[in-house]
Amino acid sequence: MTVDIKQLLIFDFDGTLIDSVPDLADATNAMLTTLGKETYPISTIRNWIGNGSRMLVERALAGKVEVLEGELTVEEANYAEHLFFEAYKNLSGSKTVAYPDVDSGLKKLKAAGFTLALVTNKPIRFVPKILQSFGWQDLFSEVLGGDSLSTKKPDPAPLLHVCKALNVTPEQAVMIGDSRNDILAGQNANMDTFGLSYGYNYGQDIRELNPTEAFDDFAALVEYFFKNYTIDS
What is the average per-residue pLDDT within 87-95? Predict the structure, then answer.
């Protein structure tokens, strides 16, 4: 069997490498408290995460996943998002943890010669601090946040931008993530997609989105790369 060479591994962040829900939930509830609104349990807020901070804020204000057009004013959403960012910035981040085997797995892949990149919908200003807290700041050759470009996942532009910056074709890259935004972005960029089932996908099985491959834990993903892909040296 002929196996395409995969050189570039593009990872999502929240829900793929790290579980940031506890800190995001604390910031969300702090925002809601400041606004005098009802707060929510972490189990509810978990289902609102994955489409970037603006959507999280709008869902929290509306108290549901599907926010209708016109249900919130731009001014309301802007002010709430400002409060959310302030609350999130002031958190220590101590509740954000790496998923099992992610730290060792990333380092194994890097040492094996794969090029690693990070494409997240989290605002870029919050990313370096988290990377540094895990000692991952030197693992990724490119890092993009949700506001690094004019569009974000599921638009393919961030993935194609990373490929161009690193002189890699989409056929030589893989998008790895936990949500529909990640899988759709990879499919829209005409690259293979690897889904992880443990993250934030609004209760939908990642396999329903037809990724190229799907895994239930990070160690299985890493093992798959070592078994099936070679590096073009």
Answer: 91
Q: What percent of the chain has pLDDT over 70?
A: 97
104 and 203, same structural domain? yes
Q: Is 217 among the annotated ligand-binding positions?
A: no
Please check whether residue 196 is in contact with residue 16, taking contact to mean a CB–CB distance below 8 angstroms.
yes
Q: In whole angstroms, give the CA distance from residue 128 to residue 140.
A: 11
Domain residues for 29? 20-91
Q: Could you tell me how far CA 176 lies from the centroid of its own chain?
A: 9
Determine whether the annotation assigns residue 12 to a binding site. Answer: yes
Neighbours of 107 (CB within 10 A): 15
CA distance 143 to 126: 12
Pick from 91, 116, 136: which residue ends a domain? 91
Reference 139, options 108, 174, 177; nearest CA is 108
**Alpha helix segments (H runs only) across 102-217:** 102-111, 127-134, 157-165, 180-188
Residues 107 and 156 both lie in one domain = yes
- pTM of the model as a whole: 0.91
Q: Is 103 a catalytic residue?
A: no
Options 4, 12, 103, 138, the catalytic residue = 12
